[in-house]
Structures are given as structure tokens and as C-alpha cells.
Design goal:
Blueprint: E1 2-6, H1 11-15, H2 18-27, E2 32-38, H3 42-45, E3 53-57, H4 61-69, E4 75-78, H5 83-92, E5 95-98, H6 103-112, H7 122-128, E6 162-165, H8 177-186, E7 191-194, H9 200-209, E8 213-215, H10 222-230, E9 235-238, H11 241-248, E10 253-256, E11 279-282, H12 306-309
Parallel strand pairs: 1-2, 1-4, 2-3, 4-5, 6-7, 6-9, 7-8, 9-10, 10-11
Helix pairs in contact: 4-5
Length: 316
């Protein structure tokens, strides 16, 4: 029996699907587990031993669908549930189990500040899609498999350090520069800055302002970033994919929340046997404008950005 898992983006969302992959394969070894995603996220899954075959969306959805039709899948596990995945389902014409995205509940929270969100992590909502197969959450958390050949020896890193993943897809999820400086100055250890090419200039500016900051933004691939986090004492991150990779590596995490809220169900997700004290959540509570979005904006819609400007780092 063949099962196709669909999740096209992004880094964090894909990492959060890994318990579904693992539980399907370990609890039903006879299943042939396939996974379709965008080609740019290949590195997140290529080393996952629980996936039998990967399929990639490149330039053409039509080409992807034609390739998927050849596989004769029995089931689709739709962990994205958007127009693209509905299109795939309509073309493949097989039984589909889909993620409940809680769009109505999130709309109420964002627009009216009425909280009817279930007290449920998105991993558990992902797991609900495979409950029909008798699959249960094994409690082993997230997976991220770093290739053995991954090497960071070319970087002169101190023996003991923390990591700050300073990037975010949306600016309202990210500390402004002066608050980044304040955070770095509160950390009593060397602090390695990681991020993409888009964060390189910000990392350089931050490393000039803070003597303990070592800027590696734009110099690492995602596996190297993961390896550096794996060897760190602690990880500081915004509500981003790097936060979820750090959780997969069982690292202590200080997560910093701006316009989004933990109640959306995307907090660091650890195995059941890991102490929840590994996760520290920093947020400015009781703001009438928060959350202003379930994703984020380029700038604060209100102009004051209190959800980040008013962050306190005293207890770290």
C-alpha cells in the first residue's frame, strides 16, 4: 500500500511533519511512504530513513501530478490543505486525509481576539490525519537527520557557545536591531549568529555592536546550521523553522514571539521524555493588537511594534 504525504513549505512546517513520517513507517512497515514538497526543501527530507521516495515540485505542477499518477497511490495524507494539494487530490482520485488548518478559529483570534483555538499542538493535528490507519504518536518528538559528511571545522568556534538564529521570513516575527543588541549583551557566553544570505548584513552589524557575537550568517547551509546548533549550549530563535530544527535536536530553546502567538500551536515540540523546562517562551502579553496576523508582516500595522520593542530579557 502506497501513501503520499503532501507538504510544500516551509522549513518549520516540514520539520513538524516528521513524526507522521516516522510513525507511519515504524508502526506500519508494510506501507510505502512517499513525500511531495518543493525542490528547495529537499535537504530537509533527503536523509530521512523513513521516506521511501521523494517527489519535488519544481516549475510545473502539471509535471508533478503526471509523475504522481504513475505511482498509483492508495491514500493521500494532506498536511498542507491548500489549492495546490486539493488539485493533486482531484487528479489522483484517491482517499485523502487532510489537516484541519483551523482557519476560522485563527481568523476569530486575529480579527476579533476571540480565542476558541484548541489547546493542541500542530504536530498532534498532523497526527490526527493518520489515526484512521491506527497510527499513534510515539512521543519521540521531531526528526532532523544531519548527514555524516557535514563539517563546520573551517569555522573558528569556541568550545562552548550559544546560538542566535536571528532571521525570520517576516519582520514582525523578528526583533528590531536595538533589541537584538540588548539580547546579545544579556547572553553571558560567546553567541554564534546563524541565518541566510538575507541576514548577512544584519549579522555583521550585530557582531560589531556586541563583542560576544560571531557572525556566520550567509556562510552556512542548513545542515551546517543544524550541526552548529546541535553543539550549542542553548539556542535563541524567533518563531521560525530554525526553532523547530533546534527542538528536533533536543536543544534548550529561548523562543521570542512577536506578532504570532504560541496558542497557534507552533511552540518547540520535544519528545515526551524531555523536560519541558528546555523551552522558554518570551512574549509581550496583554497587547490588544496581538496577534495581528497568523503569519506576519513587513512592518507593524500599528507602527509601534510593542510586541517586540517591549520584550524583556532580564531573567535570561
Amino acid at each position: 500500500m502506497k501513501v503520499l504525504i503532501l507538504r510544500f513549505s516551509s522549513i518549520g512546517d516540514i520539520v513538524l511533519t516528521t513524526p507522521v513520517i516516522r510513525c507511519l513507517k515504524t508502526q506500519k512497515p508494510e506501507l510505502e511512504v512517499h513525500y511531495a514538497t518543493k525542490k528547495q526543501y529537499r535537504g530537509l527530507l533527503i536523509n530521512n530513513p523513513y521516506i521511501d521516495k521523494l517527489h519535488f515540485l519544481e516549475s510545473s505542477m502539471t509535471d508533478l501530478i503526471q509523475n504522481l499518477k504513475k505511482e498509483n497511490f492508495d491514500y493521500i495524507i494532506d498536511l498542507h490543505n491548500n489549492l495546490r494539494t486539493v488539485n493533486i487530490w482531484s487528479q489522483l482520485r484517491v482517499k485523502r486525509y487532510k489537516l484541519d488548518k483551523l482557519n476560522w478559529e485563527k481568523w476569530l483570534m486575529v480579527r476579533l481576539k476571540v480565542n476558541v483555538l484548541p489547546y493542541m499542538h500542530i504536530v498532534d493535528r498532523y497526527m490526527d490525519t493518520v489515526s484512521h490507519f491506527g497510527i499513534e504518536n510515539d512521543g519521540n518528538g521531531l526528526d532532523y537527520f544531519i548527514p555524516e559528511q557535514t563539517n563546520v571545522s573551517q569555522f573558528d568556534l569556541p568550545e562552548s557557545y550559544a546560538v542566535y538564529a536571528l532571521g525570520a521570513q517576516h519582520n514582525t516575527k523578528k526583533l528590531p536591531f536595538l533589541k537584538q543588541v540588548e539580547l546579545c549583551q544579556k547572553v553571558n557566553s560567546p553567541l554564534v549568529l546563524i541565518g541566510g544570505n538575507e541576514d548577512k548584513e544584519a549579522g555583521e552589524k550585530l557582531s560589531r555592536a556586541c563583542s560576544n557575537a560571531i557572525n556566520l550568517c550567509g556562510q552556512l547551509n542548513i545542515d551546517q546550521s543544524a550541526l552548529i546548533m546541535k553543539n550549542a549550549q542553548k539556542v535563541y530563535a524567533h518563531d521560525t523553522g530554525m526553532m523547530h530544527i533546534a527542538a528536533a535536536l533536543r536543544k534548550p530553546i529561548v523562543s521570542i514571539w512577536g506578532n504570532t502567538i504560541p496558542e497557534f500551536g507552533m511552540t518547540p515540540y520535544y519528545p515526551q521524555d524531555v523536560d519541558d523546562a528546555l523551552s522558554t517562551i518570551l512574549e509581550v502579553e496583554d497587547l490588544g493588537c496581538r496577534p495581528c496576523s497568523k503569519i506576519g508582516y513587513d512592518k507593524c500595522p500599528k507602527g509601534h511594534f510593542k510586541c517586540m520593542v517591549n520584550q524583556s530579557f532580564e531573567h535570561i
